[in-house]
Amino acid sequence: IVVVSAIYIIANIIKVVELIIGFIILSVGVLSIIWTLLAKYSLSPKSKLRIFTNNFLACSIAVVAFSTIRLIGNFVSIPWLILVEYFFTFATFFFFLLASYYILNIGKEFGFERESKKTRRILKSKKESLK
């Protein structure tokens, strides 16, 4: 509520809501990149989680770049800027696709699917035995 109120008060004073919100979004995005880098370097090199973190980092960078281009596009009229936006949108989805693939491989490697099926069977048999 305080953040929304502050944005409302600042917007009434400055009258540039898009610029304010854009800079807030960019600062949160940069913070996300910083935390992802800290997380990446806390993981062991060549681990699957570090590879997954690299993809997450690439997604974060692409989203921050898209937001920056979008913010610039609100104030400058450059016809080809939309192509840059499309590129960063594609890059984001591409890295999300890679991250999804790595999640699938991690799940197969550690057998989460098999364990959940086994757990379901055990719970079902316990439930039937209680009846």
Characterization of this structure:
The protein is mostly helical. The protein is built from 5 helices and no strands. Helix 3 runs antiparallel to helix 4. The chain is elongated. It starts with a helix and ends with a helix. The mean pLDDT is 83.
Task: Using brief descriptors, characterize the structure shown.
0% strand, 131 residues, elongated, 5 helices, mainly alpha
What is the overall silhouette? elongated
Summed up, the helix count is: 5
Q: What is the string of SSEs from the N terminus onward?
A: HHHHH
Percent of residues in helical segments? over 70%
Number-wise, the strands total 0
Fold blueprint:
Layout: H1 2-14, H2 17-42, H3 48-73, H4 81-110, H5 112-130
Helix pairs in contact: 2-3, 3-4
Question: Could you give a quick summary of the protein structure above?
Answer:
Helices cover 87% and strands 0% of the residues. It has five helices and no strands.
